[in-house]
Design brief:
heterodimer; A: mainly alpha; 16 helices; 68% helix; globular; B: MetI-like fold; 75% helix
Chain lengths: 311, 354
């Protein structure tokens, strides 16, 4: 396939191909590769990131620039789309109206923050319990808890939809917050348990020897050591809730609608899609996630596998 | 008080033990008796609060009683209670419902029909068709993710300048919302403005409508999903790659083993476990494929991209065949439980090896 490697004499370390020069020598494993690899990986990363980048660029285009064919890479940026996310005129001469997106962003933030806070308190206690005072059938409980998170949302939503309809919780903040708290709970428990499991028991034992109560051990010794993990769990929970669509689609009302639902409705709109506007909504929606991804880099693997794989 | 808990054998005078906070039996008696009396004598609005307060007192005394003896149980109880109320109980309810004939938009009382919902689901050719569509999409998207993720992991396995920042660019799609990704690709696949159509037009001169053909729509969804989740596979494999001992490669280099041989004989055996976990995890997740389909094609053209999750949604909320949809969702639930069990088995095994 490659001239250098097809030569039977030059197999092994002596083989020099264009791949080698890019740093592919010993195609994997730890080690240092130079700027050649940076150039290659940089080009690839940009191509990979391009869909996101293009949306962000589109958000800054004027109405005409968005419609331009072929697509414009150079344009005068404008903030019109961002202004129109919140207030815009629906017809050419029409009055400027509130689009409700301020409310939807507020709803998204409120339901995410409150539900994550609840899940964090309840889940951290439970994780500490599962980690330090194993019950009979501890693993079974943990398995059931994880399963509730792995189930297709559509399976869970049908009975919850019926329950919410009967109890009048549909379309209320209480309903969606309780649901999101439950939705975040399995994740929080598994994440926090993985952090508690990693702590060295020696410090705790020493504290117990010196007469600390269990409550004191938890608050003064264990909790401070997992603060970084707690923060990572909270942020992951916020992102998961922030991104959630199906529950919100079926269980929020006009007043409690979240951004993903509103975004989906903008796409399915009646008078053609205003792509620039949609891109602006998406940009506002994405930026927190991208910032947070950067901050979370070291905990990303644990987070996306719900704490089942640590490193 | 505490000593009485610690040594139940000690003969303390009974009169003192009756009025402990931890006497849950007395509290239960008060709760039942008190609320019965309140319901009988007081108006409903007042008796509700009396019963509530006594119930809370009972719960409190049960906690005091259990503190110290069942600490693990107490710590996990709130979490289990919340999960039970909001998740397990509804699931049990829908399990019950799957044996009845019930439609959520009718007032009729549900009629017990035994297993006939399941019978109808299992013999329904439409369900089998949707399952085949799902299986096809799962296999294609997961294999695409695995290949792309593996190649990207090889690229990022070494340390190089700016690696940390470039990694962020690649990892971002995984953290995005399904809705946002659906909206992105709807824009890119759009016939007149979409980048894909414009690109094709460079060669053919005609606008290109990806979503009008069956395989085009499938490819569009699979590409969007794989783009989103290949970074996940990459992250997992990367974790395996950096754990391979460096001296193995050094030894292989001395033996003049070619790069592909090092990959095959050193790298692959080390990351086999993680590859399996990645496949299982992504299969479970891809099995639920809903949001992207819903946003990109709504199952079309025809029903060619209607996955089983979308079908359950239609069954439950558009055709309002509530009890049939619960029966079908229980079949899905069972599948996911089996897959999750497998996943945890391998994840634990890997955790113990490490």
């Amino acid at each position: 396939m490659l001239p250098a490697t097809t030569d039977p004499q030059s197999d092994g370390a002596a083989a020099e191909s264009w791949l080698d020069r890019l740093g592919f020598r010993a195609a994997s494993g730890v080690g240092d590769a130079g700027w050649g690899r940076t150039a290659f990986a940089g080009a690839l990363s940009l191509v990979y990131f391009f869909p996101v980048l293009w949306i962000i660029l589109t958000a800054f285009k004027s109405y005409d620039d968005v419609l331009a064919v072929p697509a414009k890479f150079l344009f005068t940026p404008t903030l019109d789309n961002f202004r129109q996310v919140f207030n815009r005129a629906y017809s050419l001469q029409g009055q400027v109206q509130d689009t409700g997106f301020a409310l939807y962003f507020f709803n998204s933030i409120l339901s995410a923050v409150v539900s994550v806070a609840i899940a964090l308190v309840v889940g951290t206690l439970a994780a500490f319990g599962f980690s330090r005072y194993p019950l009979k059938g501890n693993d079974t409980y943990l398995f059931i808890i994880l399963t509730t998170r792995m189930l297709p949302a559509i399976v869970v939503i049908i009975p919850i939809f019926l329950m919410f309809r009967v109890s009048g919780l549909a379309g209320t903040y209480a309903g969606i917050i309780a649901l999101y708290a439950t939705f975040n709970l399995p994740f929080t428990i598994w994440m926090m348990k993985s952090f508690f499991d990693e702590l060295s028991p020696d410090v705790e034992d020493a504290a117990r020897m010196d007469g600390s109560s269990d409550t004191r051990v938890f608050f003064r010794i264990c909790l401070p050591q997992v603060l970084a993990g707690l923060a990572a769990t909270a942020v992951f929970g916020l992102i998961l809730t922030w991104n959630e669509f199906l529950f919100a689609l079926l269980l929020t009302g006009v007043e409690t609608r979240t951004v993903p639902v509103a975004m989906a409705q903008t796409i399915g709109g009646d008078i053609g899609v205003r792509w620039g506007l949609l891109a602006a909504i998406e940009t506002l929606f994405l930026v927190p996630v991208i910032v947070v991804t950067f901050a979370l880099q070291n905990q990303l693997l644990r987070g996306v596998t719900f704490g089942t794989i640590r490193r | 008080m505490a000593s009485a808990v610690d040594s139940p054998g000690a003969a303390a005078p009974p009169a003192r033990r009756v009025l402990r906070w931890g006497n849950w039996r007395l509290a239960l008696l008060l709760f039942v008796g008190g609320s019965a009396a309140a319901i009988a004598t007081l108006p409903p609005s007042a008796s509700f609060w009396v019963a509530g307060a006594l119930g809370a007192a009972f719960a409190g005394s049960a906690v005091v009683n259990a503190w110290g003896r069942y600490r693990g149980g107490l710590l996990v109880a709130p979490a289990l209670a919340l999960l039970f109320v909001m998740n397990i109980f509804p699931l049990l309810w829908s399990f019950g419902l799957s044996f009845f004939s019930y439609r959520a938009n009718r007032m009729a009382v549900p009629v017990f029909v035994g297993l006939s919902n399941y019978e109808r689901i299992v013999t329904d050719p439409v369900v089998w068709d949707r399952l085949q569509t799902t299986a096809l999409m799962v296999v294609l998207t997961v294999s695409l993710q695995m290949v792309a993720g593996f190649l990207m992991a090889l690229l990022f396995a070494k340390q190089f300048p700016l690696r940390r920042y470039l990694l962020i660019l690649v990892l971002t799609p995984m953290m995005l919302s399904f809705v946002a990704v659906g909206a992105f690709f709807r824009y890119y696949y759009e016939p007149s403005l979409g980048l894909l159509s414009q690109f094709v037009r460079l060669f053919t001169g005609e606008p290109y409508v990806l979503m009008k053909s069956v395989w085009g729509a499938r490819a569009g969804i699979i590409f969007a999903d794989a783009w989103m989740w290949a970074p996940f596979v990459m992250l997992l494999i990367l974790a395996g790659l950096v754990s391979v001992p460096k001296y193995l490669y050094e030894a292989a280099a001395i033996d003049r083993a070619p790069a592909w041989r090092q990959l095959w004989s050193i790298t692959l055996p080390y990351i086999r476990g993680l590859l399996l976990l990645a496949v299982l995890f992504r299969t479970i997740e891809a099995f639920k494929l809903f949001d992207v389909v819903f946003l990109l094609t709504e199952g079309g053209p025809g029903t060619s991209t209607e996955t089983i999750a979308v079908y359950v949604y239609r069954l439950a909320f558009q055709y309002v065949k509530t009890s049939e949809s619960t029966a079908l969702s229980y079949i899905l639930l069972f599948t996911v439980i089996v897959l999750t069990n497998l996943y945890l088995y391998f994840a634990n095994r890997r955790g113990q090896e490490a």
